[in-house]
Amino acid sequence: MAExxxxxxxxxxxxxxxxxxxxxxxADAPKFLHDLTGSGHTLLRDxxxxxxxxxxxxxxAVVTGRAHRAAVEKELPDIPDKNVFLxxxxxxxxxAIGLAAAILAHREPDVIIGSFAADHVIRGTQVFEWAxxxxxxxxxxxxxxxxxIPPVEPSVGxxxxxxxxxxxxxxAPEAATVERFVExxxxxxxxxxxxxxxxxxxxxxxxxRADVLLGEIAxxxxxxxxxxxxxxxxxxxxxxxxxxxxxVWPTLERIAIDYSVAEPAAERGRLAVIPGHFDWDDxxxxxxxxxxxxxxxxxxxAILGGNxxxxxxxxxxxxxxxxxxxxxxxxxxxxxxxxxxxxxxVTTSEHAQRVKGVVDALxxxxxxxxx
Length: 371
Fold this sequence. Notes:
This protein is an alpha/beta fold. It has two domains: 274 residues, Spore Coat Polysaccharide Biosynthesis Protein SpsA, Chain A; 85 residues, no CATH class. Helix content is 34%, strand content 25%. A five-stranded mixed beta barrel has the order 6-9-7-8-10, surrounded by four helices. A four-stranded mixed β-sheet has the order 12-14-16-17, covered by helices on one side. α3 crosses α7, α3 packs across α9 and α7 packs antiparallel against α8. The longest helix has 16 residues. The two termini are 41 Å apart.
């Protein structure tokens, strides 16, 4: 792009621990602070690099937890201090994105914001930029716009977006209404969606005028909206911010933005979608990570770790090493091995989604020291 989009502000929600990537992803080193693709950058930095041409370095904001502030600012040395919005504790995506929307709308009433997760992998920068440019054009018309990914397989790991009628909007030739959002389906249903071609994967990207987004929150979650406005009005006054955050933040409802904004907006005809014709992955588990790093070969063993010492013979899957141990992998298919100083995970790609259950079990048994 020659110039950033003048009325656009990019937002990066950087939260969550990525529990399906345990023990690689931890509370103190979550997924977005790892290089999972061999790019030489963390996922957070890669996200910044994608968004900088669209917004400019002074118009990118990050919402993250207080515990991760130092790491985020180390990864993003160019981010202005005023654009780091800290959560005192996680309250789910509506509070995180809504907080940023309320602060930015207070500073710049007509601003358009775009929310893009800190821990997704996108390849095809120019195509991504074109999708965002279209989404901004749609947002200027008063819609909330999302970017959906045309499925490449009948996946059960993603939610889906059902496209509706085409929209006629200058600068957005691929825009369409959203008929409905669909939860993660079973395999037979996913096959039907894949064959239908009017269904897109929900990639969790939302672009809208900040005041329009807040209006949807006000309709579906009025108490949450009121709290966000209180926070925004005090945010840029350092003396006033702390007491308001301490009073308001713990009272905010925990609800995902899909439920508070996207689904109600779709029902009212206020939600639009742009197909994103770029490679996208939310790196939701080790099976996804193996695909990203296998070079497209199912018989390949992908190895991550700068000091990995691995002997492999007719093995496939993924091995992540954070130790100096020699690891031998012989005659196994679709294996997942993650070796860290204090925890070892061994599973298969087929069972990669079940890693979250291990994390839940460790919490219940009081083994938080390894989380």
